[in-house]
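Table 4 source record.
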Amino acid sequence: MSLPEKVARFRAAAPAEQEVALLNAIISVGSVHLESELGSLKSALPELLVDVLEGRVNYANLNVDEALEVARKVLRPEDPFLLKLEDKVKELRQVEFIEKILDKLGGIGVSPDSFGKQRLGVITGFMLVRDENVHDAISELVNAGIIVRRARVSPEHHIVIMIYSVNKSQEVDAVKKKYSLGIQLPQWFFEPLETAKRRAEEEKTRIKKEIIETLVEIAGVLRDAFEFERATRIEIISNTLKAIENAEKNIQELERLFTELMAFNIVHGICRKRITVFEEIGLKKPVCELLRNILNNEKVTRQQFRRVLAHIFSQEELDEIENEYTRLLSLQSLYKALGTLKLEELAEKSVYIVASGGQRLEEVERPEYIVSYGYKTINKFADEDMRIYIFSVPEETSSALVNYLKDRLRAQVIVVTRDSQAFNNTQEQLARSLETVKNSLLTTIVSRSIFKTGTKPERILSILNNEELKKAYSYISQLKSGVPQRGLPEGDIYSYLKSLTGLADETSEEISHVREEIEFVKEVPCENVTERLRNIEKSLVDVSSKLVELLSYKSVVETMFRAQPLLSEIRVFRSRRITVIEGYVPVKYVPLLEQTLKSKVPRLLYFKYFEIPRTATAPTYVERKGLKKYLYTLTSMRGTPAYWELDPTLIFTGLFIVMYGMMFGDIGHGLVLSLFGAFMWKTKYRLLGITREGAATLGVLSLLAGLASMIFGYIYGTMFFLVPLGKPIIAPIHDVYGIIAVALWFGVAQLILAFILNMVNLWIYGDRLGALFSGMGGAGLAFYGSGVVIAYRLATSGFNLAILSSSELAPFISVLVIALLSVVGYGMFEALHRGEKEKFMHAISEVIEMIIAFPANSLSYIRLAAFAMAHEAFGILAENMAGFTGPIASYLVANFLVLGIEGLAVGIQAMRLTYYEFSTKFFKGTGIKFEPVATPISSIEKTKA
């Protein structure tokens, strides 16, 4: 238990041109909590916007025309805020126009819900007409025998009401088509008149509120010319940060490309010389055999292919790579078939067509196709996966047959003429294609296998002995483990930030280029691969180094993004500007802050600080080192301690683990829980999607709770519900009253501790009277202590109420009454002498809580005994089940149930007792969180350009 670190409030000022130096100094210190800006320069804003910001403008007194005029003066015509405001004003004018229509309709006794409805063969309709057309429209309607009424709704518009029989509908529609404005009216317009008017008023109110919200947004970005400059700076920092974060997402892709390049080097350069290289890099035996079979052109069935690769590829990837393998088999079959051709046997004006495909290719044997295309089958080969046909075809039908084979039967086709030179070229081209597809297939399998098996790149690089890939790997290793951070160079910092944004875009483009080059090189003939491969490797090294450089600035840019909006500017003699920054820093860091400001800011105009007394409001700085950085979560979940409050982290933790152990006492279960906690703490495994920090916190709490469970397991003499380990000190299930007594006395001790802590907190805060006479202070402690003694004597006397009148308890009953009266008296004192009238009612509520809640809180601790007994009851359950399911099964089921269900339930109960019964007596948790603007200076490597 300790108080939060004492903090000091500081203020520093420098000329505006040295703002970056001032900010860099603050960033270097790190443990600084900045206050929000000192205030806006309202004089630069139009008066209306100032009134909007200060809440003096509401929907009832808003002058919409003035608002629109002001917005048009300060915003560009294409500004989104202005366009939004104009849309809202236009919407408001539309509603006001509808409201005028409703008023006119009310004046002539017409309700809008009657429009368009037929009653006794008569229809009431309306239309809006321009002023210049109204006489013509009325004349045509009257001539058609329509009853007409009109009313002016604006200087330019009239509403014309038409009453007509059903058989006049066509004449009315013709006039409406000719003269009606066709304004779209909302559905609520056609409701009863009063309802429609009310809806119109509601719509006007809604739109005006939205206009005010828009004006607030406008005012927020238009403080003055300095605010525009600041917004630009923040935008530059924001864009740089986004660019760095987007570039960071490329690390996994970069690693994938690196792995693919390693695989391609293995496939292209080494595997043909060292057939054992696949085993050397750590691939599994079935995969190695598959790769060698493909490399040596040995047949592998599709079933074998899928079975070997099923654990490496997803279903979608497996289908894709199987198609690639099918293509390889087809090319191999075609190449084999070409070797059987004899050009001298080919008839004049005929060609050979070699087709490779699946089972569908057998359709070519149907007589009607043979007759239609006039081909003759020279040879054919078949296995379970592939069909090869060689046809002799007349030249005039060869094109049609080729199209049929490709389009209908999805076959790969080669056409061979009598030209021997062309035939040799075809064979060479097919051989190159075969080699290219094989390399691509092998590369894909090898690279994916490396990823899946987690083979260390160092092992592969030692085989390849490729310097460029080694350089690339060193950069990628830095990217994965964390790039050392550094500060920004001196000079025009915002220009430098823009260059970083450009560098981020450049790296993304280069990664895309490397990806495209790798895909392209797979199609390049083997004799041309080496040079291209070296160029790709150099590009990979280059882009990796750029990404390392880019990410080395991430911390400082993140810090600038958080700190920049908190800087303030003031104007001196119109043209001179001064940047002012203020905030809080732990007292122990004040000398470091002062020294850093003086050394980094050439013209530090002002620096002052003063220590904040405990009675004042300030951010709460709690230093979290070692295990406390994980355990503090118990406190932060309840709230942030106020600056004057004791930090309850250690006592929260101690009480939690003791209560957990008491309810879950078992050496074996405690050991399992401890091992689970150690695993979570060390690995930070994101169980059920929790954060890594949350996983570490869960791990530490589980480890400590498990140790407490083992201690209580020794006291209870249990281990996995097996034979008791010697005579237990206390057996919950057999000594019910004993374990309940322990639980209750533990609760009493815990609540007394809570009262004492509250008295300490109030004393530190300066409320000495409250510490002594409040219901949660000294008076509450006296009341509770006396109540415990009285309750104990009642219980030990067999609840004989006559004992209450004994002289033995008279002093305690007197203390009980005096404590209640002192709480009420203190409340009256605060109400009368301090003018805080609500304090008296607060005192009354405290008295009620003392009488009702204190006993209830004490009895809540019986749950400690109840869960301890329930835990042991599971052992009896396992014992009884042994006759039905066997001892091993019954004990396994019982232990799994306890670890899975009771382990969680006990944690919830321990948390509840800690948070509700205990912490509510003394812990407010209303403090201000200390939010450092940056990481400490020791974690940033500072460099100069």
